């Protein structure tokens, strides 16, 4: 038996693959297109591991996806592959529709064809796990209750709209064809191996480089923060015991404003690697014009996942952010390779 992980050289995907093989001997086939956010350095610990196979490919290539499924006969597809950065979706929405909507469609078609040819036992055991986002639900009022799985979709960015469309496709393939799917809608992930366009690694990188730490608008946008290893654990629980067709919200119960998060992160960096001039990294904070359509608040109610599957996050924000900062301090070469672009040309290193 094996599983296929799409987008497995990216942030959450690579953490999932590494964690899976640390806990299990079940082989993993990692598929990644290796766009700017795909980094083979993320999978370097598995370079000589016979349980791991890397395939350079595109989920939008339906014929290639079907051939991959037939070649490896997986019991599950864990679908992380997506374009995920809101700012990039505002600048180039077409790329997000192609990757997140059409890519998911072609992957679903390949999975449906493969699954339809399995025997009864194989059909019953197979799972297609679709990893999505809480941004499909839109923006919460300041004091409104958190998103549940019954919250109406109201995406406000091209990124969120593209993920909402992919969620609807996944649901339709279960309702129409019976494909045994599971969907997770997660809150903001953070942790090791995150590309430094996202807030936490961007702040860490810019702080040490002496660059401004940009905060959109007043910085009072609120997000729920989820340590990436806890998200990986939730996906494993879904795969093991989730009800086919079900959606599970995955959150960390860690709401923070962007401004409080950055200030706290600066205080932690002051502790771990003080500036030579004795000033706080917080002195580098600058407020920049808010981005278009910026959602004010996200918060996730993960009660269903806790009640039905017994999942709870293992990290508080305080413990998770300390682990995250320490990883970036310890992995200076990874950071340097990303900053220089060398990670895009691994064979030239």
Task: Write a compact overview of the structure shown.
The chain is an alpha/beta fold and 349 residues long. The protein has twelve helices and twelve strands.
Detailed description of the structure:
- The protein is of the alpha/beta class and 349 residues long.
- Helix content is 43%, strand content 16%.
- The strands form three sheets. A seven-stranded parallel sheet has the order 3-2-1-4-5-6-10, sandwiched between helices. Strands 7-9-11 form a three-stranded mixed sheet. The protein has a two-stranded parallel ribbon with strand order 8-12.
- Strand 1, helix 1 and strand 2 (28-32) form a beta-alpha-beta unit.
- Helix 2 packs across helix 4 (93-116) and helix 9 (258-272) crosses helix 11.
Report the strand count: 12
* Lateral arrangement of strands in the main beta sheet: 3-2-1-4-5-6-10
What overall form do the CA principal axes indicate?
Answer: globular
Largest sheet: 7 strands, parallel
Low-confidence stretches: none
Question: Approximately how much helix is present in the residues?
Answer: 40-55%
Please state the CA-atom Rg, rounded to the nearest Å: 20 Å
Number of helices: 12
Secondary-structure element pattern, one letter each: EHEEHEHHHEHEEHEEHEEHEHHH
Mean pLDDT: 95
Termini separation? 35 Å
Strand content: 15-25%
Derived structural class:
alpha/beta
List the helices and strands and how they pair.
Layout: E1 3-6, H1 11-23, E2 28-32, E3 52-56, H2 62-72, E4 76-79, H3 86-91, H4 93-116, H5 120-125, E5 127-133, H6 158-177, E6 181-186, E7 188-190, H7 199-209, E8 213-216, E9 222-227, H8 228-241, E10 247-250, E11 255-257, H9 258-272, E12 285-288, H10 303-309, H11 317-330, H12 332-340
Parallel strand pairs: 1-2, 1-4, 2-3, 4-5, 5-6, 6-10, 7-9, 8-12
Antiparallel strand pairs: 9-11
Helix pairs in contact: 1-8, 2-4, 4-6, 7-9, 9-11
